[in-house]
Design a protein that fits this description.
With 273 residues, this protein is α+β, with helices and mostly antiparallel strands. It contains seven helices and ten strands. It has a four-stranded antiparallel β-sheet with strand order 1-6-7-5. A four-stranded antiparallel β-sheet has the order 2-3-4-8. α4 crosses α7. The longest helix has 20 residues. It is globular and about 55 Å long. The model has no long low-confidence stretch (mean pLDDT 96). It binds a DNA duplex (16 and 16 nucleotides) through α6.
Amino acid sequence: MPELPEVETICRGLQPHLQGRTIVRVDVLQPRLRSLVEPALPGRLQDETIVRVGRRAKYILIFLANKTVWVFHLGMSGKLIHVDAATPLQKHDHMVATLDNGRELRYHDPRRFGLSVVVAEARLHEMPQLRHLGLDPFDSRFDGPYLHAFTKRSARRIRDLLLDQQVVAGVGNIYANEILFRVGVRPTHRACRLPRGKVEQIAAMIPKVLRDAIRWCGTSFSDYRDADDNFGEFQKRLRVYDREGEKCRSCPSVIKRLPLGNRSVFYCPACQV
DNA sequence: CGGTGGACCTGCTGGC
DNA sequence: TGCCAGCAGGTCCACC
């Protein structure tokens, strides 16, 4: 589900609710996520105060006063929501953190592809999931030459390269498709065959599209919601993703869908070469 | 090493 | 109406 813009929207929504709050208790209702939630996790969080909420790629980072970090990844269908304690529990609510103001932070994830761990802040960037991540697209070092260093030596399709978190951290299938439409490149184009100028354009378009999506609070199809359980708006601004058979917004052609690996690509056969 | 394809889960939709 | 195949925002691992 959530790519960088959705995760960033959730973080921005959680920050004012969580900052300065103390976690009173944590209940794990279903520990079987992508990896098992360690039994010691509730004890490591109890009575800890939240300093701030941050993000690395698609990971949500809740920094605690004792210099540990509660890390979440939402997988495909995860939600992290701040609610009133009176809100009825939903099916697939797997974790509930009660805060000192009586409100609750709930982790909900039907497909259970998500992740939740607590790590020492000093070891955060050494944890297996974060260690090999590439640059965040908003990092000042992320530019054309950086991306070109990857594209020039890769025979992969450009869509697959953009999904590789070791190259750019935070792009997922929706935004990979949207970015490539906006630079007129087919998702199936081999990375190493793209001219340097096109790679520069792609590198510039990545943060542009992601920023735009953040401005619209992310993309909601079925299950994505922000920290207050509200929909995003960017689905109204998609040019190709999930628009198979519909008219291109830039020319008279019809958007095509192609299964590529186990993720569909969407493109305009006229606008994208 | 690089690249591909399947596995992990549940739920929804569309075709028959 | 009911059933079943196909598909879904992501990662990780086995295999070539």
